[in-house]
């Protein structure tokens, strides 16, 4: 007769966990239907009073392996927690010296119109509005706090990401301990979570604050649920709901949380079929929260046309999903060739490799179900991995990537648990392997930490990030284009031209890559060629606002200010929030020598609009100051120019020299004394 003793038993840690082979026990409990195969019933030990205890002394060797005294256990947990935190600190220490990267960081941190360097009630209210095709209020509040504390400095947000990741790993460890999974398994799973290279993207990329913040809420919910199941209480259930809400409000991908909790009910909690209705009803409020967040997310993405499902037929998306599952599992075991962007190769999705990958995933799933009774940890680990990936697996496609490392932030927990518990069972069957298995686990964690530290280095700036992506992927037009833009930013026009040309070789119809190449031509002084490329880009379906803004820049550099004004106005008609068009047009209207072009009041309105979107951009603030000066509002010009200086990066630069000169002139005209350093 199988006996099920749940971790909620009052004497679980003190007696049950210490029982070994050969012990005689006296058990009081309830005969219930068994979910296992080959047996109809099992005995579920009663919760209280403690009734499960050894009648005969345990063997000395087994008793020695029992749970340590409570103070020693606390000291052990503290030491393991410190080791996990130290691993995170070592792996992610380089982010303190990294830059923002060109992929989405500006959207959330430096060009976010909702940020003004201060934190107020408007930030809290605004966080609940849609932004960038997303609805993540808690993440928005977190970024607003960063902005108030650190301004446009990337160090603060990146270090904060690392701290949040460490907190999530610690919460995971203590949650698994509360679930009575043992010290070794809990430490292994939490350490893998802390240092796995697949998690580097979520931590070292500032824009992925949503991942680590949601991870903190998710792991806090696991801990709250474990505590609630150990001793059900309204306050503990409230803590579970609060943590669940925090995770969901940080990132909608946490909608899989109630599914994960149901898996924990199956194992390690081993709740019976008779409890199925209760187990499900406990999760209903979390399911309701998940449904609400899902609806808000769909509304946010539909409102701006972010849903990209039409790019591939459902059949191909399903094949890509199956192949992605297989690749994710392999990357979890051997993380090599990781990149910030993985392109689709649609022609290969119906090939033998993709079909074999789908078949392998289906076979492993069938085996997990077949042996669920004998190996419940493998069932839970595998379906945790599959289930928590569902929102990001691409069946409903948002974006142009085939898969992404950051999507493995939570699914990796399931695979780590399955591997850790399987090793524990092997050690129990063959005690001689215990030490080698512990050594192998430690070695695996250290190897992952080394690989993750190396992966962190690729995130130091945009050029390094996309150069690595180009090196480890093939036919990656997005990565080549982004690398070309990074080279242009640093003044390497030859490198920029080479990479953008390669992007166009891969995707000749890419209007965005063509318009970026045109900007390189402008920087090279090849204005006629640039205009020809822009005309082709417009015909290729490129962003009309971007193309017209570039045409305005070409006309401006050719000395045709009237043509520049016309192009900038066309850009703003296509997209009123095109910052560079508003900024450049404002500069012309404020500073043009031709009196027919000067319009100071309109220049102020345009520059203010640009400053709302780039409140911490010194060039935009300089334009606004020039517009104020053109209108004779010299005191406001001086105040705005002082803000521009404060927003400049440390160190000498041509822009700093220009802004300081303008500030002195505006102060003189306003009658204010010059600033003294």
How many helices? Answer: 29
Q: Helix coverage percent of residues?
A: 55-70%
Shape: elongated
The number of E-state strands comes to 5
Mind summarizing the main beta sheet? 3 strands, mixed
Give the CA-CA distance, first to last residue: 83 Å
* Rg over C-alpha atoms, rounded to the nearest angstrom: 29 Å
Keywords:
single chain; mainly alpha; 3-stranded mixed β-sheet; 29 helices
Architecture overview:
By secondary structure, the protein is mostly helical. The chain is built from 29 helices and 5 strands. The chain has helices spanning 60-64, 70-92, 105-110, 121-126, 137-150, 155-178, 183-195, 200-204, 209-230, 234-250, 257-266, 276-303, 314-333, 352-370, 376-389, 411-429, 434-457, 462-472, 477-489, 493-506, 511-523, 527-539, 544-557, 561-574, 579-591, 600-613, 618-630, 634-647, 654-670; strands at 3-4, 25-26, 29-33, 41-45, 53-54. Strand 3 (29-33) and strand 4 (41-45) form a beta hairpin. Helix 7 (183-195) runs parallel beside helix 17, helix 21 (511-523) runs parallel beside helix 23 and helix 25 (579-591) packs parallel to helix 27 (618-630).
Task: Summarize, please.
With 677 residues, this protein is mainly alpha-helical.
Topology readout:
Blueprint: E1 3-4, E2 25-26, E3 29-33, E4 41-45, E5 53-54, H1 60-64, H2 70-92, H3 105-110, H4 121-126, H5 137-150, H6 155-178, H7 183-195, H8 200-204, H9 209-230, H10 234-250, H11 257-266, H12 276-303, H13 314-333, H14 352-370, H15 376-389, H16 411-429, H17 434-457, H18 462-472, H19 477-489, H20 493-506, H21 511-523, H22 527-539, H23 544-557, H24 561-574, H25 579-591, H26 600-613, H27 618-630, H28 634-647, H29 654-670
Parallel strand pairs: 1-4
Antiparallel strand pairs: 2-5, 3-4
Helix pairs in contact: 2-6, 2-7, 2-17, 5-6, 5-9, 6-7, 6-9, 7-16, 7-17, 9-10, 10-12, 11-12, 11-15, 13-14, 14-15, 15-16, 16-17, 18-19, 19-20, 19-21, 20-21, 21-22, 21-23, 22-23, 23-24, 24-25, 25-26, 25-27, 26-27, 27-28, 27-29, 28-29
């Amino acid at each position: 007769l199988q006996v099920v003793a749940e971790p909620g038993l009052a004497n679980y840690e003190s007696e049950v966990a210490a029982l070994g082979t050969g012990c005689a026990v006296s058990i009081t409990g309830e005969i219930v239907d068994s979910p296992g195969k080959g047996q109809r019933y099992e005995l579920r030990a009663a919760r209280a009073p403690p009734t499960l205890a050894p009648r005969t002394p345990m063997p000395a060797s087994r008793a020695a392996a029992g749970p340590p005294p409570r103070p020693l256990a606390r000291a052990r947990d503290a030491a393991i927690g410190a080791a996990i935190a130290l691993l995170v600190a070592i792996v992610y220490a380089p982010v303190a010296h990294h830059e923002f990267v060109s992929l989405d960081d500006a959207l959330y941190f430096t060009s976010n119109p909702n940020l003004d360097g201060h934190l107020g009630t408007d930030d809290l209210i605004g966080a609940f509005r849609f932004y960038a095709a997303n609805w993540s209020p808690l993440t928005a509040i977190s970024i607003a706090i960063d902005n108030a504390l650190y301004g446009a400095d990337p160090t603060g947000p990146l270090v904060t990401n690392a701290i949040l990741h460490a907190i999530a790993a610690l919460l995971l460890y203590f949650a698994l301990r509360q679930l009575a999974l043992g010290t070794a398994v809990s430490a292994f799973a939490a350490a893998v979570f802390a240092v796995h290279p697949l998690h580097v993207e979520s931590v070292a990329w500032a824009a992925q604050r949503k991942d680590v913040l949601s991870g903190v809420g998710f792991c806090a919910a696991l801990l709250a649920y474990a505590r609630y199941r150990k001793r059900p209480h309204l306050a503990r259930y409230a803590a579970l709901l609060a943590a669940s809400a925090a995770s969901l409000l940080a990132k909608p991908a946490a909608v899989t949380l109630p599914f994960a909790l149901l898996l924990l009910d199956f194992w390690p909690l081993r709740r019976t079929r008779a409890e199925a209705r209760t187990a499900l009803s406990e999760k209903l409020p979390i399911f309701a929260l998940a449904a609400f967040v899902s609806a808000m997310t769909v509304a946010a993405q539909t409102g701006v046309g972010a849903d990209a499902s039409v790019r591939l037929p459902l059949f191909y998306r399903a094949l890509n999903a199956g192949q992605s599952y297989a690749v994710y599992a392999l990357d979890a075991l051997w993380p090599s060739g990781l990149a910030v962007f993985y392109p689709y190769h649609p022609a290969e999705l119906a090939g033998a490799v993709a079909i074999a990958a789908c078949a392998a995933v289906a076979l492993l799933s069938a085996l997990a179900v077949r042996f669920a009774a004998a190996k419940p940890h493998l069932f839970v680990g595998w379906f945790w991995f599959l289930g928590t990936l569902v929102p990001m697996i691409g069946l409903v496609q948002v974006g142009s990537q085939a898969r992404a490392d950051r999507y493995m932030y939570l699914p990796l927990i399931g695979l780590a648990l399955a591997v850790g518990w399987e090793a524990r069972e092997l050690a129990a069957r063959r005690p001689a392997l215990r030490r080698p298995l512990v050594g192998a686990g430690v070695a695996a964690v250290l190897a992952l930490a080394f690989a993750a530290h190396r992966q962190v280095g690729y995130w130091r700036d945009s050029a390094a990030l996309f150069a690595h992506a180009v090196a480890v992927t093939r036919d990656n037009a997005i990565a080549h284009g982004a690398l070309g833009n990074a080279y242009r930013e640093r003044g390497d026009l030859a490198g920029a031209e080479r990479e953008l040309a390669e992007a166009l070789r891969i995707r000749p119809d890419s209007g965005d890559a063509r318009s970026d190449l045109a900007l390189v031509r402008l920087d090279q002084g090849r204005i006629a060629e640039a205009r020809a490329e822009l005309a082709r880009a417009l015909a290729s379906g490129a962003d009309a606002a971007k193309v017209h803004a570039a045409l305005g820049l070409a006309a401006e550099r050719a000395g045709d200010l009237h043509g520049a004004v016309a192009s900038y106005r066309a850009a703003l008609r296509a997209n009123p929030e095109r910052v560079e068009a508003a900024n450049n047009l404002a500069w012309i209207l404020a500073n043009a020598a031709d009196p027919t072009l000067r319009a100071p009041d309109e220049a102020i309105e345009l520059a203010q609009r640009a400053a709302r979107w780039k409140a911490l951009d010194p060039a935009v603030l300089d334009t606004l100051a020039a517009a104020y000066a053109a209108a004779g509002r010299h005191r406001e010009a001086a105040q705005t120019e002082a803000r521009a200086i404060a927003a400049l990066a440390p160190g000498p630069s041509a822009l700093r020299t220009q802004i300081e000169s303008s500030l002195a002139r505006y102060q003189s005209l306003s009658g204010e004394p010059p600033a003294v350093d």
